Each structure stands twice: as C-alpha cells, then as structure tokens.
Amino acid sequence: MAEVRRVGMLTGGGDAPGLNGVIRAVTMKCAGEYGYDVAGIRLGWKGLLDPKEGDIFPLKVDDVRYILQEGGTILGSSRTNPYKREGDAEKVVRNMEQNGIDALVAIGGDDTLGVARRLHDEFGIRVVGCPKTIDNDLSATDTTFGYDTAVSIATEAIDRIRTTAKSHERIIVVEIMGRHAGWITWGAGMAGAANVTLIPEVEPDLDAVADLFKKRAERGEPWGIVAVSEGVTIGEEYITQTAERDEFGHVRLGGIGETLAGELKERTGIDTRHVVLGHLQRGGTPTAYDRILSTRYGLRAAEAVRDGEWGKMVALRGNDIVLVSLAEATEETKTVPRELYDDLATFFG
Amino acid sequence: MAEVRRVGMLTGGGDAPGLNGVIRAVTMKCAGEYGYDVAGIRLGWKGLLDPKEGDIFPLKVDDVRYILQEGGTILGSSRTNPYKREGDAEKVVRNMEQNGIDALVAIGGDDTLGVARRLHDEFGIRVVGCPKTIDNDLSATDTTFGYDTAVSIATEAIDRIRTTAKSHERIIVVEIMGRHAGWITWGAGMAGAANVTLIPEVEPDLDAVADLFKKRAERGEPWGIVAVSEGVTIGEEYITQTAERDEFGHVRLGGIGETLAGELKERTGIDTRHVVLGHLQRGGTPTAYDRILSTRYGLRAAEAVRDGEWGKMVALRGNDIVLVSLAEATEETKTVPRELYDDLATFFG
Amino acid sequence: MAEVRRVGMLTGGGDAPGLNGVIRAVTMKCAGEYGYDVAGIRLGWKGLLDPKEGDIFPLKVDDVRYILQEGGTILGSSRTNPYKREGDAEKVVRNMEQNGIDALVAIGGDDTLGVARRLHDEFGIRVVGCPKTIDNDLSATDTTFGYDTAVSIATEAIDRIRTTAKSHERIIVVEIMGRHAGWITWGAGMAGAANVTLIPEVEPDLDAVADLFKKRAERGEPWGIVAVSEGVTIGEEYITQTAERDEFGHVRLGGIGETLAGELKERTGIDTRHVVLGHLQRGGTPTAYDRILSTRYGLRAAEAVRDGEWGKMVALRGNDIVLVSLAEATEETKTVPRELYDDLATFFG
Amino acid sequence: MAEVRRVGMLTGGGDAPGLNGVIRAVTMKCAGEYGYDVAGIRLGWKGLLDPKEGDIFPLKVDDVRYILQEGGTILGSSRTNPYKREGDAEKVVRNMEQNGIDALVAIGGDDTLGVARRLHDEFGIRVVGCPKTIDNDLSATDTTFGYDTAVSIATEAIDRIRTTAKSHERIIVVEIMGRHAGWITWGAGMAGAANVTLIPEVEPDLDAVADLFKKRAERGEPWGIVAVSEGVTIGEEYITQTAERDEFGHVRLGGIGETLAGELKERTGIDTRHVVLGHLQRGGTPTAYDRILSTRYGLRAAEAVRDGEWGKMVALRGNDIVLVSLAEATEETKTVPRELYDDLATFFG
C-alpha cells in the first residue's frame, strides 16, 4: 500500500465540547511532528460526499494552535450518512482519491463511526476513529469527551434553580439530555443533589415520587428538584392531569419535563414548574477534563495513523488511552447500570 | 408616635438574586448597630396576613452573616396581596400590632411596594421599601438588583449556544425573560452579541430578520443567534409555518421562541432551533454587582428606618443610593427607550 | 478643516476586559455605518511613534465581529508616552499625516488620555477619548469598563478561599489590585463578605483588625478573610513580626499581603496565610456588564467622531453615555469616599 | 467483636473540594440507611487526641443534606499526627472507647491514612479509609477527588492570563501547586494550552524554554504562558539574573514562579511576569466531577463499614469504586510518567 501523505479529518453528528481539542491534537501531531499534510473536511461525510469549494482544505498548525478553548467544531458537522443512499459510499471513496486523501480520522458517534468502519471493511479505506458523544453511552470507552461538560452545565443549572425552588416552595423539574441512556441526568442528579432523578433505564414510579415530595413538605420543605432525562416515558395510564386539555379534550403533552411537572402538581398540590436545558448542554468552552481527554484522544489517534492501525478507535481505559477495533466500538450502547442508579436512592428525599 | 422597637422584614413576588444581600444588610445594621429587634416574616404578605407558627421569627446577626452568596430569599416569598380581598389589609395591620412589629421593610416589586404604599397611606404603617425586580423596569431607580445576574446568565447561555449554532449551521432562538420590558434581552443581546435582538417595546419585522440571516448565509455564515423576550408577539397574519398544525388544522403555538424558530426556518430555509431559559435566569449566586447593589440598598433602608423616613424607597441614582417616595416608585414602568434599542442595530447581521 | 476619511484607533496602558468591546463598536459604527476607513494602530502610542510594518492596518467589520467576548486588546498595548522625550509628539503627528489618519480614537487611562489631550490642544489633532482603567478611579465617569470584571474575579477568589480558611481555622489575606484607589478592594470586600477590608485611602489600624479576629475566635470562628489593596502601607513602627528576618537581621518584606499576614499571625496567634491575585484580575472574558459598558462607550465615541466632537471623552452618568472634555476627564483621581468605606464597617467581624 | 453501633468520621490534612461530598454520603448511608449513629470528629486526629467540648458530635442526615456544593470540610481539619509523640496513639484509642466510637471512617492523604493503618494494625481499630489529595499522587486510585477542581481552577487562570500576556506581549509564568508530583500542572498545562509546562518529575532546561519563546517572538508572537509546579527546582548554576540581588549581593529568590520569570526575562529580553495561584486552587465549590467521585467514595466507604471491611480504602479503577488495602494505598507516590509529560511537548511553542 502506498505511503500515507495526506490525512483527512472530519467531525460528524451532534457537536460536543472537545471536538476542537481532538482536531488540534491530530493536526499538531500529524502535520507538526510527523510531516503529513492534513486536510480538514467540512460538515462531516457531506464534505466528502459532495464537496463544495473550500470544503476540503489544508489544516496547518497555525490554524489550530488556539482552538482548544472553543466549543463546537471548526470543521462544522452534519448528519449526512453515505450509507443511506445507494452509490454514496462509492462517491465518498472517489472523492477521497481525487483529493489525494489516503487516510482518514473520523470523529463522531455511532453513526459516523459505523460509516468509517464500513468504508474500512468494504473499501479498505485507511481510517482511525475517535468516539464523540456527550451521552457517554459507548461501551468501548470509560468516558467520552463532552460528557463532563454536559454534566457540569446541567449541575450548575440545578444549583441555580434550587434557590428559586426553595424561596417559592416549588418543585422544579429539570429536563436533561439523554434519549436512551441516562448518563448525563445520572451525573447531574448526583452532582446537583436532585431530590429525585429519573432516567430512561428505569421505569418511573410517579406515586413514589409524589410521596417523597409530600414527605419533604411534612418535614417543612415543600420544595425540591427532579432531574429527568428527556427520554423518560410515562405510561398513559398514569397521566391524570387535566389542566392542559384543549377544547377537544386532547391532552397537550409537551416534553417529559412539562408532563411530569403537571403530574407532580396534581399529585402533591405543590406548585410545580419545569425547565428544559436543551441546547445549553452541548455548547461552550469545554471543561478542563474534556480538554484533556479530547487532546489525549487526538494524540493517540495521530499515533495510530503513523502506525497504520487502521480500523481502530481510541478509547479511555482507566487512565490510559488505548486502541480498540471500530467493530467493537460501535457494537453496544452503554446504559446506566441498575446499581449506579440505586446509588442515587440514598439521596432521594 | 411610639419609638420603633421591632422592625419586620418581608420579601414578596418572584425571587431575585440579591434578596439575601438586602436582608443581611438590614439585619446587620438594624439589629447589630442600631439595636432594634428584627423580625423575619415568611412568604411575603402571606406571613402577615395569616401567620403560621414560625412565620414571624427573630432575625439575628448570626443568622445572616453568611447568606450574601446565596440566591433566593431566606424569608421565602409569595404573590399574596392583601388588597385583593376585602378586610385582608386590616388583618395585616392587626397582625403587625399583635406581633409588636412597629416598622416594616418591604422588599419587592410593583405589587409588593404598592401594598406597602397603601398600608402607609391608609393605615399610617411605618414602612420603608426596597425595589426588587430582575426585569429592571422601575423608573425610580437606575438599576434593580437581580438584573445584572439575569443578564449575565442569559449572556453566558448565548456564549454557549453560539458554538453549536456555528458548528451545525443553524439559527438558534434564545427566549429570555421579560413580559413587558425588554431590558434583560436588550442586555444579553448586546453582551452576547446576538445577531438580532427582539423586545416587546418594538414590533418585530420577521421579513427583515429573515433577510438578515439570508445575507449572513450568502457571505458564508448560515447560522446565528436571535435573542427574544418572552413578551414579544407576532401578529397572526405573519404566521406562515405549517409544520406544527394538529389533526384539526390548529396551529399549536408554543412560546415566542418556538414560534419564531418555526417562522425563521420557513422563511430562510436554515435549520432553526430554540431554547427557553426560563427559571435558570433568576436563581443562583448573585453577581458581584448585585451583591454590592443589594447590600447598599439594605444599608440605606436601615438608615431610613432609623431616620423615620416612612413611605420612602431606596433607589440608585448614578453612584448614589437615595430615597424616593413609594408613590413615585410604583408609578411608572421603565421600558427600553427606542434609542437604546437602536444601539443594537449596529451589530445586527 | 478637511473631511475625516480615515479614523485611527489605539489602546494604551494596562489591558482591561472590555477593550475589544470598544474596538468592535467603534469599527462597526465608523466603518460599517458611517463609511470611514478605520485604521488599527498597534501597541498604543508606540505604533504611531515608530510604526513597524503592519503596525497601522485596516480594521474591517469582519475583523471585529466576534471579539466582544475576548479579554485583552486585539490592537496590543504599551506604556509608550510621546511626551516623555523631546520631539516624539511631533513624530506622532507626522506619522498620522503620512498614514492619512485624520482623526483618532484613543482608548486608555490617565496617561494615554493626557497625551491625547495635549495632541489635541497643541497640534489640533482631532481626537476622541475613551476612558479605560480597571481601577475605576476617574472622576469624570461613574464607572470604567474592566472594573466590574476585576471585582467579579476578586470576589470569586474570596468565595473560594473562605472554605479553606474555615476548614483550617486560618486567616487568609487576599491582596487585590489598587495602588492609589481602593475601588476594586472595596467592591470585592463588600461582595465577597470579607471580614475586614483595607484600602489605601484609610490608614489601617492593625490592632483593631487583630482584635476583631480575636473576637471572632472567642465566639467560635477562629478564621476569616482580609481583603487588602496592594497600595495599603503600614507604618514601620507597627511591624512586629520576626519570622522572616534573614541572617543579617533584615526584615524581608514582600507585598502588603505577606506583611499583613505576618503581622496578624503575630498579633492573634491564628495561622495566617496570604494570596496575591495579581494578573488574574485583569484578563479573561469580560462580564456582561463590561461588555455592555464598553460597547456603549464605543458607539458613543463613533458618534463623537461623526459629529466632530474633538477633545472630548465618553463617560457614564447614571444610565447615560455622555461626552465630557478630555481636560475634565484627566483632572482628578476618584478615590473611595470615606462614607462608602464606612458602609463596609457594618460587616466587619 | 462487638457489633458496630457508632461510626466516627474525621478529615485530616489539607482541605480538598469534595470532602463534604464524602461526609454527606457516609452520613446519609450509615445513619439514614443502616441506622448507625454517626459521630463527626472535629479537626482530624486532633479531635480524637484531645477532644474539646463539641469536638465529637452526632452527625444527622439533616446536617449534611445540603453540603455537597460546599468546599472545605464541615468537620474542620488539622495536620495533627498521633504517631509523632509517644503515647498519643494510645490516647486516640482511649478517646474512641470513651466516646463509644467503635468504627472510624478516616478521610485524608498519606499522613492521615498512614495513621489509620497503624491504628488498625497495632490496636485492631476498625477503620475504613478514603483517599484525599488534590495532588492526585496516590498510586492506589486512578484519581483523587479535589484534583479535577484544582486543575479546573488553574486552567481558568491560564485562560484569563493569556489575553493579558498577548495584549502586552509578555511571558507570564503561572506557579501551580505540586511539591513532588506535577499532576495539577500537567493537567492545567494541557487544558490551558500553556506554551511550556514544567513539573518536578522532569529537570527543566531553561535554555530550551528560552529558545522556544525566542522562536515564538520571531514568528510574531512575543508572548506566552509557562505553567510550572511549585516544586520545580533550578540548579544554582543556571541562575543568571541580577535584577533582584540585594545590597549584599545575595540573590533574593522567591518561589519558582518568580525565579523563573526573572531567568526568562534575562534570556529572552521579553517582559516576563509571574502569578502564584496558591490557596485559590483548593477552595470553593467542587466541580461536578469531584462531587460525583467524592459521593461515590462515601457510599462505598459506608458499605465497607457495613461489611466490616476493616483496614481497607476506597479507590477508583476505571469506572468502578473498589476497595484496596490501606497498606497498598499508602505505599507509593504516583508521579507523572515520562510519556504523559512528553504528550505535552506536541503543544510546546
């Protein structure tokens, strides 16, 4: 196989604080130390599938020196997946060739890494992966970058909201990211000392939650915080609230935060509100933890390129950054194990 | 008139960062220096209208020494208004007498201070007011405490969200507090460098806003931030979006953030999202600015009690804390003047 | 006089959070709205006295759009003063002419604005000034930008340090910026709830300070925080400590923080440490308050250029940005008035 | 052996953000769930060696519910070591008996845990240890709580200082905690993107550092940040600076930050300053990471008490909290391995 000269790099899927840390480390090591050309590819697979002018461009050390503190990704991102339409994968491969890109660092989640793996397996594309998800739900690595920042932001939100809840004697439900895995909510619920934390992995018992707040009220604290993942669902049979029925008798259900607030108000008689953190959780400057983790990922990914460790992905194990196969990496979703959730129960109430 | 021996203090209406700063300063000066008894009254006028056990309690210097950093109010708050039901004002007066409270420091907004003023005018109650609203819409004072904290939180939110908007090439609409006055949005829009800021005082021109984002897209920046007050309204004739119509053809309009996001997406073709900051904006530790302002308010209010300046309210004028009449204080809502709004226009785009 | 075509802009003296806010607003208004050429001048008067290649360069709207959040100054700064050496002022004037700069926005403190004033008075240079000092010691304006950020940083430092002081039962002396004026220390001492605050304007009474901490110890709190301006001095006759004498018997006195810590330890028997905040206080992203103030200063300075208001400086009065004469502006240092310092006394102990 | 009824808990050594997290979790699990009496012991071993009134007191769930966010330790701390004076260990054992304390949770560093281990080995005291050091230098655990907070604070400091360094074209040396192990400096140097990082584990080459800054100046960036551990030493033969010699010709060397700043100024001709972060790094509210880690440590320590796992210590391994023997725990100092330090080199310059 021909020697690697030009290394492409792209970021796919939702942005995560730390992406620029990976980009910086890969560029400084690959271009600055190893002497490769590095090509930035804009907007994930989109920039390889249908590159517009400027979508594939040289990345120099001077371009990345000061980007570690920045949230988001200087490469831009998209959810384009070349395996969704026949012929697109071939187009990606052709565009790589035409642009002289003979190796690829793909930074992304399940979807992006799944594409990377198939391009490697099916076309022999020389690819190194770097896992990215603020959801922390990849089984192949102890932690993903962006997760610590998301937990920190949600924790700070709970800290802020608590004083209002207490002053107004209210329950406030904080809706936190996490469709399938409750990691961010678990972390923020523990760090923010929520009075109850609900995650998609464990079916919620609304009556138990309501009882807990009634007990708090009895001991003189008619207020509290519920941390809930957006992915938590409540069986329709538990929905009792009437307040939000429209003229046709339809219950207008918003997100789980809103629904849950209505239910708790109904059941406890305590004024209950909700906040949806939404996009606040994924942006802004990364925590020190995420800057370090993303930088270390990037360095290791660059070494993997140098060593020709194709089809591999970087991962954290204890204090070490290791390589695992992309196959292994994209196999399984890591959800919050029951015993970790039960740890929270000590603090409920 | 009998000498003042026992000074009551209450906080009414929505909580604001800095309330504990006022409470601390009043207590330390009135109890610590002047030798008055200070009585904390729980839950605003509710604690005087229908006091439960413990709702009127001695506040000592040791109780307040370390509360300056805390958001919310250690006295609790409510929206109870004794002028909403016949006979309630008399009950308040009677309860003050029975509890030996012969002067009152009332900390609150329009509503709370309006009650204070009528109790003073109609019953001769010895009252000193302290303005509180994070909305900053009181004409009698240059600034209200809580406002700086609210602007800071909203600004930080915009800072965070910008990197996501840019990475994903999205418009993100940030809905900020302010039903009638756009001060917080004006401040956060300026400090957060929003690409457009919309406030209740100025009718929005959706087409102009959409054009601006189209121009941004043309020059290579198909993304941006809109800061919008919750109180902004859009004439129904401008609503074009179809996405959220339900089975009966009804447009389900959420808050202005959601509506606006839908409209901008429709008009620009750019993916547009929204975030509602909600309760995040009023809680948590106050900024240094609000700690100082609230402390100075509290000190001046205590002096007003000592000097018998009843029916007055503390206010900031330039660098000075002055006294103004409660009548003046509650007269007029201060909205954002047109020329201040126009200052923002320089940065639109 | 010929029409203004090209407006130069420079920043002089110590950096302050908010400088980029002024630069951005001046550029966006002057270049973007009024159609002037704007020339950035590097390193304060140095860039006009002895311009190297690239020291005078075109500033475009696109260069400044996203700099509001950045601390420091994109123009760089220096303490060069062209009135310190004969002939230098003439050189500055000549370089302005040669570079076609026919008006100047000078952003700086006493020193920078003093030069601006003399260039205006002596050579008829068309200059508009913008006050900059984190020390807040200019009498012509209610507040200077950078001050709020400095107070915030020092306050956060005190918040952090308090938990250590308490856990270890120590006094910790926090040395804060301010050679001649104690504004930052006054603000941080109030907002951080320091147990004692010492500023250059008021002679410290070490015995009284020591007594206060002894009393705290007696009531069960053998710890506390002293906020002290770097410019506070202690008469040599009060120096009693022996710990730090060197082999020759010389007392090695560090800054006031270190000295004071030694003295308090000696007098109280309580373990006493110190921290010098130093450069931490002037850097980093500006607070929302400083972003707004600096932006409004910049807008008003741009208007002054348009209106030919030469020899004037922007200033804050209440909520308004006004113009004052540069003469007035640089006349007097504003120190902390005694009554504001006495406000703190309520919280000492 | 008699059943455990009353569990004592103490914190020793320097404070670390997260101590209250451990205290809260141990108390809520031991008292709230298992039904033990929990006794708080004030000021580390001091409170057991020579308990004053109130130094051994009941800790209830209600005392700890809301302390997770607080820095420091509600138990207070000291450096008292009962193995420093003959007979003291026996006194500790006697005081435990007299106060009915039949098991002990000892939270501390090398010193505190070393005592715990000997009390266990020599007197059969039932003890469970919890490691605490912001220095992160314990080989038995992947990470210690407090470390993440310390790195975060130092990183934020570097972020702030960078803008000043750049605006003034200065080198600024940031002196960071770490006498023997460079972990905090390593982390903050990486997360803060310092231009050079120096740690005690690797002998510094001043000439190489100076060359690096000269090269930066040549490419137009005559400024930068050095992160240096307080424990770094420079051989006297490398000291060239003359600026700070006193009248007797003695070089007055301050800490390494000051010394290094002098040397770099001398060697590069670039204005160089320094900042000593000192006590700022260990106080204040813990990061979300440290709140979670300390809470999980506390829960596991409580389980160890219930299970009678005496002589053990909790530790983090990957994502798991495990038990290791106290012997193992206090055996070895974990310093920064050479390859982790070399990771930083990619970013030097």
Automatic annotation (TrEMBL), chains A, B, C, D:
InterPro entries: ATP_PFK (IPR022953), ATP_PFK_prok-type (IPR012003), Phosphofructokinase_CS (IPR015912), Phosphofructokinase_dom (IPR000023), Phosphofructokinase_III (IPR012829), PKF_sf (IPR035966). Its cofactor is Mg(2+). Gene3D superfamilies: 3.40.50.450, Phosphofructokinase domain. Its EC number is 2.7.1.90. The active site is at 135 (proton acceptor). It is found in: Cytoplasm. Signal peptide: none annotated. Homodimer or homotetramer. Belongs to the phosphofructokinase type A (PFKA) family. Mixed-substrate PFK group III subfamily. This is Pyrophosphate--fructose 6-phosphate 1-phosphotransferase. The gene is pfp.
